[in-house]
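Tutorial handout. Part one gives the primary structure; part two gives the three-dimensional structure as tokens.
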Amino acid sequence: MARQQRTWIEWGYRDRLLDGPMSVSLDHFRWIAALVVATSHLREQTFPDAGTQVLNGAQKLFYFATLFADEAVVVFFVLSGLLVGGTVLRDVGAGRFVARKYLIARAARLYVALAPAMVLAVVMQAVPGGYDCRHGPDGIGRILGNALFLQNFTVHPLCNDHPLWSLSSEAYYYLVAPPLIMACVRRTWRSLAVAGAALLPAAVFLRFEYLTAALGLILWLTGLLPWLVRVRLPWVVAGLPFVASLVVGRLHLFPHRFEEELLLAPAFALLLCSDFAEARVGGARLAKGLAAFSYSLYLTHMPIAQAVTLATGYRDLPVNSARSYAIYGATVAGMLAVGWLFGVLFEARTPWLRRWLERWSEGLLRRNYAGAMEVVR
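Part two.
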């Protein structure tokens, strides 16, 4: 008998990708990435730059562990592409994609915690002295622009919640994903034209920075690869490029940051394409509980960090004082508490808000349809 040749790369849609233990691993990635962003931003706000200090081994480790905020955002983008983009890919391929229900689900997910988080940020701007608010509290134009996800297009993020820049990109990816995937699946002139039109805003506002929607879209779309490609490598081996890309990002071997991000995203996707989907990790309940408010933590941590700097001074905490690390630890605990509270009060209400919006939109459609029929008659 002829020996069957082993195929290291398999192409084809993996419809049961998330049915196994991979969902637990993704929950771990979600809460760890949110915590990395929060702790990194807090350290940047409160402690001096490492280059201006003489650090011992423990202090170097502390600084190193809080240097990966940008990389954590890339992980968020890839995970979003996998989870949200994968849903679109599945529904479009099965012929059951409904634009209205999809947009309602995405709007509910974004706004249920964003709206109260923006209220928190605006209220905290009433406290004078926030370093990013040196020109005074945000005006109604910037607030409305952030509510409409225009941060990467026409307005700046809220002055005391800069991480909201990524929500603008995220919302744009939610809008552009269906026409892009439909163009790839259907390959008709109409679908290609619609996809091209959807990409126009990204092209108009293109800058070679990782904050822009166009380059971030590349990172987001790599999240689709695990649905389409299986790489037969042990996850420990497949994860080496991901670790290497994190190291490269710290060494700054490239002239621009976006080049480091473009290296990190496919490296992370490679890990997700490996047998990582079948790897069983522990802490399922812990992962689910912490991931449940990871979005809320991301939205609310920066206003709290900036409020702390009002008391400590911007980057004024001495690195050699135990009191500095006590303040830092207490603030992290406060961030987690606020994030958890927002998660319980708001983020957990996402299914309820989605159902309410669906009922409201269905009623609106019925009324408009009845009105149109009356006009016809």
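Part three, for discussion. The longest helix spans residues 350-376. The two ends are 75 Å apart (CA to CA).
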